[in-house]
């Protein structure tokens, strides 16, 4: 296991009602109270659940995130949510550039870059999602694709600003119901490449940016991924939507951390 804070979170996508999310959050709070402080949990509900869930988390260290936001503070952007609105709720982070936003809502790296700058301006931590699709992987341009996404999404950031950013590598072919879990060796190679790219862009500060892995992470494979040197956390989908499954993963991670500390 690597040293430092371990980021573990989940994006609920469009799955839980306010009532369902409330029950889940109460159970997660109980679990979080039993975990090492080295594990930083975060949840990303639908926009409708953000306000009630924030109230539930008022005395918890679990961070609350939004699934998307516009880069403008206000304006004629029907269906959008602004960083000012998210700030009013008190959210701590925002997920930007998820592959489903790119695929179904035509989001691109230039727009994501605007959102990153807007989030940082409003002191919201950006969680920037990047990933190659199967066609890009089969054509051996995964690394070129990921480097391009990083360079554009993080364009114009200072070394100080980028310290507040997290990156989630989610290969498009590995997520969703039909996702194909990636081999740990592939993830290790990609995360090493991402780390080196960040160092080229931001110097030693690039070593401090948390790199999370997401893509069909479940209770059967999460230990393989978390043991990789440049994986600083996991962005878990379906395996975290079920609280019993998530609890199993979290307690296993906590046991590993406790064992590592006892060996020091």
UniProtKB/TrEMBL annotation:
Chief location of this protein within or outside the cell: cytoplasm
Gene Ontology biological process: gluconeogenesis; glyceraldehyde-3-phosphate biosynthetic process; glycerol catabolic process; glycolytic process
GO MF term set: triose-phosphate isomerase activity
Catalytic reaction annotation: D-glyceraldehyde 3-phosphate = dihydroxyacetone phosphate
Keyword Isomerase among UniProt keywords: yes
Keyword terms of this UniProt record: Cytoplasm, Gluconeogenesis, Glycolysis, Isomerase
InterPro entries: Aldolase_TIM, TIM_sf, Triosephosphate_isomerase
Annotated EC: 5.3.1.1
Location relative to the cell: Cytoplasm
Main enzyme class: isomerase
GO annotations of cellular component type: cytosol
Top-level lineage group: Bacteria
Pfam families from the UniProt entry: TIM
Pathway annotation from the record: Carbohydrate biosynthesis; gluconeogenesis; Carbohydrate degradation; glycolysis; D-glyceraldehyde 3-phosphate from glycerone phosphate: step 1/1
NCBIfam families in alphabetical order: PRK00042.2-1 (NF000722)
Family: Belongs to the triosephosphate isomerase family.
Subunit and interaction comment: Homodimer.
Protein name (database record): Triosephosphate isomerase
